[in-house]
Write a structure and sequence with these properties.
The complex is a heterodimer.
Chain A (H helix, E strand, L loop, with lengths): L1 H18 L1 H6 L6 H4 L4 H4 L19 H12 L6 H7 L4 H12 L15 H12 L11 H4 L18 H13 L9 H7 L3 H12 L27
Chain B lengths: L5 H12 L12 H14 L2 H5 L12 E4 L2 E4 L16 H10 L14 H4 L4 H13 L11 E2 L8 H9 L13 H11 L26 E3 L4 E3 L15 H10 L10 H8 L6 H14 L14 H18 L1 H4 L17 H4 L4 H9 L24 H13 L10 H6 L7
Antiparallel strand pairs in B: 1-2, 2-3, 4-5
Helix pairs in contact in B: 2-6, 4-6, 8-11, 9-11, 12-16
The chains are: A mainly alpha, B mainly alpha.
Chain lengths: ~240, ~425
């Protein structure tokens, strides 16, 4: 008897809910990518703009192909950061592509440039490596791949602006120690291997001191030719 | 655990299976035998152990940490020198059924032969036909790295006497064909008992303890009892909720995560509706009604009431947006926490790890774009973690017990893969 009473009450509630379409969906999370990436946003910001943690990178506006390559690398353990390796382990590749597309489409403003405590000499050394490289040590100019305005190129080369110096140094270090690898030929590994500690500090400091350009969108695919081949940017 | 897209891998295998280099098919029935073998290999989740991350499918080399050292799985592709290319069907049956190599040597029970012994000869032969049809990969098996005395395989004899009883599955004539099919899959190929049984110091599970739940060594996940309704016993679940959980990884009652996400991702999602239903029918039937737990907390009451009130504050701030102020969730994607067995169990390992590490249920055919939960390890202190876990274990009529900050702290270092 009691069970019947409960059951009929339930029918009434269901009918009431069916009355409004909104009530139907109210019982489900929003059918959006924003809701699906809520597991990511405490670390990367609601729009992928980054957070206060200097090691947590901005994702917004980076080329979708680049972001996808990173998600695959984390999933397969080629790039290591255990909390992310764990989250992505059982997610299908097409879904990772959608996550990449989602963050590539976000366009929050770049953070204001933080004051740098690096010396003038250090900043000059950084600027010179980024724009001219060091032909004697066979270090190519970073801009030759990352673009004259350092905004990157579709599909696989990220821009270098809006990143904090700690993050840039950590990534260059990760390439040197083998905890970050990209699809072969891993050109960034070859570049990072030629840099000294001083070079790394200098490029990180100078890049982080640059104001945002008017247009931060990555250049279209094939806008310029790379100095040597990169697996992440097939031609 | 697996790396490249499993669906792509299946296609590659099917494609390679039909290429000229493949082994000649045994008889006109060949193709369906191979296809059946592939299906059964899925049910046995061979891929989870026999493929290394970013490694070639079934080429082995996957490291398996155990309390006794590290084991490396074998190459089971048909390569003649480094795989099982020279094996006969009889050799293969001996491995699956008796846990012995062709020369009679003993296998470590990390290869779940203690469950696979229940598999019929016909099914074993189908799996063998399938394995013979996949591309051969030349990759030498890596030596196990076990501490003395465990490196001595003769010790396995002792384990076998205690925990191994050889024998194919015997149907229970008093039960339906569906029930028997479910029992066959769960006890045999599914090797569910390998995790869902208390693991004793020797790394074995005893028959009488089968499916009673246990902490998985090295991984620090608790595989709940499948027979107790206070744990993951499914006695009061509907068949639909059980099949949803097994096939898609999410359900109106709860979700899978950790090692169970791997099982659904690599194995269970590929089983057909009939087999999934059969497993559900069997699982529902083995759940025993259990007496209500004696709610005994190790924490003094004043301490736990402080914890729980802090826990409510943390919950309302960080969790309620998804799991609801009353723990009702928005199932199946944001699971309910009220009346959710998996957080009320005596062992609080799983809810603590869930809060520390967050997670996504596995992406499956039935749920290709799962919703996720953020990790809170970096956002909450040990005390806040203990507080919120204590709160969800005791709020809304849940019958769990509070936990201490030390328990939360200890799991911060649990391995993530």
């Amino acid at each position: 008897m009691l069970a019947r009473a409960v059951a009929s009450a339930a029918v009434i509630v269901t009918l009431a809910a069916a009355g409004g379409a909104a009530a139907q969906t109210a019982n489900q999370p929003p059918d959006t990518m924003a809701a699906r990436v809520e597991a990511c946003t405490p670390c990367h910001g609601n729009q992928g703009e980054g957070t206060n943690d200097v090691y947590f990178p901005r994702l917004a506006g980076k080329p979708a192909g680049y972001l996808y390559n990173q998600l695959i690398a984390f999933k397969n353990g080629r790039r290591k950061y255990p909390p992310m390796n764990y989250l992505l382990e059982f997610l299908p590749d097409p879904y990772l592509q959608q996550m990449a597309d989602y963050f590539a489409d976000q366009h929050p403003a770049l953070p204001p440039v933080a004051a740098s405590d690096a010396s003038k000499e250090v900043l000059q050394h950084g600027q010179s490596l980024v724009s001219r490289g060091d032909p004697q040590r066979q270090v190519p100019a970073c801009g030759s791949c990352h673009g004259p305005a350092l905004t990157g190129m579709e599909p696989g080369i990220p821009g270098l602006l809006g990143l904090r110096p700690n993050y840039i140094s950590a990534q260059l270090g990760a390439w040197r120690y083998g905890t970050r690898t990209a699809t072969a030929p891993d050109c960034m590994q070859q570049v990072a291997a030629r840099l000294t500690e001083e070079d790394v500090t200098a490029v990180a400091a100078w890049l982080a001191s640059r104001p945002a350009p008017v247009n931060i969108a990555p250049a279209p695919k094939g806008t310029y030719v790379l100095p040597f081949a990169c697996g992440s940017e097939p031609d | 655990m697996r790396s490249c897209s499993p669906i792509l891998a299946v296609w590659l295998l099917l494609f390679a299976g039909s290429s000229a280099e493949a082994q000649p098919k045994p008889g006109p029935d060949g193709h369906s035998l191979v296809a059946r073998g592939e299906y059964l290999a899925r049910a046995g989740d061979c891929i989870a152990c026999h493929t290394a991350p970013e490694g070639r499918t079934f080429a082995g080399g996957r490291a398996m940490p155990t309390p006794f050292g590290t084991l490396y799985s074998s190459n089971i592709t048909p390569d003649r020198d480094t795989g099982i290319g020279k094996w006969t069907a009889e050799d293969f049956y001996k491995a699956m059924h008796y846990g012995r190599f062709p020369d009679g040597g003993l296998m470590y029970p990390a290869m779940p032969f203690a469950s696979y012994t229940k598999v019929t000869r016909a099914d074993t032969e189908a799996i063998f036909a399938y394995l013979k049809s996949i591309p051969a990969v030349s990759q030498r098996n890596r030596e196990h790295d076990l501490r003395f005395p465990y490196s001595n395989r003769q010790l396995i004899l002792g384990w076998r006497t205690l925990y191994f009883s050889e024998g194919e599955f015997k149907p229970d004539p008093t039960k339906s064909a569906e029930w028997n099919r479910g029992a066959y899959l769960v006890e045999g190929l599914g090797h569910c008992g390998m995790c869902h049984s208390p693991i004793n110091a020797l790394g074995g599970t005893s028959q009488s303890e089968a499916f009673k739940g246990g902490l998985i060594p090295m991984q620090n996940w608790y595989a709940p009892s499948l027979t107790s309704n206070r744990e993951a016993g499914l006695g009061d679940w509907s068949i639909k909720d059980i099949t949803d959980l097994l096939q898609t990884g999410v359900s109106m009652r709860g979700v899978v995560y950790g090692p169970m996400a791997e099982v659904v991702h690599n194995s269970l999602q590929y089983l057909n509706d009939e087999d999934t239903r059969a497993m559900a029918v069997y699982l529902k039937s083995i759940a025993e009604p259990s007496p209500p737990s004696p709610a005994s907390s190790r924490l003094p009451t004043t301490e736990s009431s402080l914890l729980i009130s802090l826990g409510k504050t943390v919950y309302d701030k960080h969790c309620a947006s998804c799991h609801g102020t009353q723990g009702e969730g928005k199932p199946p994607h944001w699971p309910p926490l009220a009346n959710n067995q998996s957080i009320e169990m005596q062992s609080a390992v799983n809810p603590i790890r869930m809060v520390l590490n967050g997670g996504y249920p596995p992406g499956t055919k039935g749920n290709p774009m799962p919703y996720g939960m953020p990790p809170f390890a970096g956002l909450l202190s040990d005390n806040e973690i203990a507080a919120v876990v204590s709160y969800i274990r005791t709020a809304w009529g849940n019958r769990g017990t509070p936990i201490s900050a030390r328990e939360a702290n200890e799991l911060r270092s649990a391995p993530l893969n």
